[in-house]
């Protein structure tokens, strides 16, 4: 009798015990691109919930605004360019990379197909469009031109023209001679206007730390379980990207509801090649990010990757 009563009390306690409250985490996302997909996929698949996290994405139009929100505490984490790790560290803000997202640079330089350009040298004297001054695309273009002996301030004119339809209109109208196009924009050219444009220069096999999920040390130290949970959930999503195109296509369709099926198919096929399969920021990728950024912002001091990067151990629960 006592044994049955004790067993009943254990069952009752288990049923009556309140569920462990989920930890709310706000993650800033920048624009619309492939780097958001692991975050959105982790939400879609319930990976964050499995880590007892209530993740709320918050959209920002640019990385600079998201940095302000992160420093100000209105968001907990952000998925943005690892360039900001160097900038934040130089300001004494102690950034931390939780998990890597990109593994390569994602830009190409697109020109009209009929112009006959053969190399970047042929663009001397021309106007080249980037999303904005000081942006990821601007820094990459300036670094490349300089490495080829082309002065980005004297030999060409680099102008901020935005991205997407705005950049395409500038190229079509002749306002610029070439544009820096990230993956979604390039696929738009190829799918919507086949044969009218071509890639003059391609950075998509240049290893680079790109975008990552980034927070500040004070938040990571205060929420170690949540930090590990975010990293594990994003890593699971990155691994799913490599093997489940249908899951990727569903997120791409959510991101681009007005685009054609052909665009969604092309974007879905491109994503696994661009996204990290293991969530780690490589030594080579971090070094390339540092090299490119410091070529345009030489006042920034280098930051040891080991001081800021948790991506090699956090998803696995170490350190």
Automatic annotation (TrEMBL):
| Location(s), subcellular | Periplasm
Key word Signal present: yes
One GO CC annotation, please?
A: periplasmic space
Q: Which Gene Ontology BP annotations are present? A: alkanesulfonate transmembrane transport
Kindly name one Pfam family recorded for this protein.
NMT1
Q: Which residues form the signal peptide?
A: 1-21
The main place the protein resides is periplasm
Q: Which residues form the Solute-binding protein family 3/N-terminal domain?
A: 24-245
Keywords associated with the record: Signal
For this protein, the record's InterPro entries field holds: Solute-binding_3/MltF_N, SsuA/THI5
Asked whether the UniProt record includes Magnesium among its keywords, one would answer no
Q: Tell me the protein family, please.
A: Belongs to the bacterial solute-binding protein SsuA/TauA family.
Name the record gives this protein: Solute-binding protein family 3/N-terminal domain-containing protein
